[in-house]
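RECORD TYPE: inverse folding
INPUT: structure tokens
STRUCTURE:
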């Protein structure tokens, strides 16, 4: 299982989203997604979301508010013809 974060940031009522344009085999390539990413070893989800927002958007967030958690069960799912091997447990801010 991979632990990650996803953060919805709003500016004047509009969500700030990122357009994914990484590698060719990216499951989310071309989609608009909230900022976030994997929790690194020894890092809390809150530390992760702060780091990811700074890296991806350049914003320092002080007190992110946890809104929920979701599990992505990737059994029997594929991306570009390859099976997805890891489930995700994501903290939503």
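DESIGNED SEQUENCE:
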């Amino acid at each position: 299982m991979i632990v990650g974060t996803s953060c919805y940031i709003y500016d004047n009522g509009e969500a700030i989203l990122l357009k994914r344009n990484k590698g060719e085999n990216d499951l989310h390539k071309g989609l608009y997604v909230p900022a976030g990413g994997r929790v690194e070893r020894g890092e809390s989800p809150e530390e992760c979301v702060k780091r990811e927002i700074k890296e991806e958007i350049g914003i320092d967030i002080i007190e992110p508010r946890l809104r929920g958690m979701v599990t992505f069960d990737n059994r029997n799912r594929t991306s570009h013809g390859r099976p997805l091997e890891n489930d995700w447990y994501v903290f939503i801010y």
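NOTES: The longest strand covers residues 2-7.
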